[in-house]
Amino acid sequence: MQTIFLYRFLVVIISCFALSLPAACEKKMADPEGALKEQAERYWTERFINKNFKYTYDQESKKGLPPFEVYEKKLKIVTRIPTKSVRIKEVKIDGKDGVVKIIAKCQIKGAPTLLDVPMGDRWVIEGNRWRHIPQIKFD
């Protein structure tokens, strides 16, 4: 009777340890705010200036993300305004969620100078890295 109890007890302990091991091994970001600022600036530079939609596609949260061809077609439409630079204005972190405010310097047809266009942006930590949450409707 005590042997069966001991055996069950050990199975429960080992199971709990095995299930908690991946969570314990996952490293936390040393500087989530700095990492998000850097990630967001690169993301928007690649999207608006370099038109590198393959890079931005790989940075998106995978929830509800369409195939690359659909994504690329939509982004080509929404990124037609020539953008000269992007800069991060503010980063806010709340657990695994992040909000970034950026300023894009855009050349609007007919405007005598570059215009500052403010934008807000949402991010989430997935698999210990920041992922962009698309705000575009793909359907």
Considering DSSP H and I runs of 4 or more, what fraction of the residues is helical?
Answer: 40-55%
Roughly how many Å is the radius of gyration?
22 Å
Count of alpha/pi helices: 4
- Mean pLDDT across all residues, rounded? 85
> Termini separation (Å)?
62 Å
Structural class: alpha+beta
* N-to-C order of helices and strands: HHHHEEEE
CATH-assigned homologous superfamily: NTF2-like, domain 1
Strand order of the largest sheet: 1-2-3-4
- Flag low-confidence runs: 18-26
Largest sheet: 4 strands, antiparallel
Query: Shape, please?
Result: globular
CATH class: Alpha Beta
Beta-strand percentage? Answer: 25-35%
Q: How many β strands by DSSP?
A: 4
Number of domains: 1
Architecture per CATH nomenclature, i.e. the level-2 architecture? Roll
Description:
The protein has a single domain (30-132), classed as Nuclear Transport Factor 2, Chain: A. 43% of the residues lie in helices and 27% in strands. Residues 18-26 have low confidence and may be disordered. The protein is globular. The chain is of the alpha+beta class and 139 residues long. The termini are far apart. The chain contains four helices and four strands; from the N terminus they run ααααββββ. It has a four-stranded antiparallel sheet with strand order 1-2-3-4, with helices on one face.
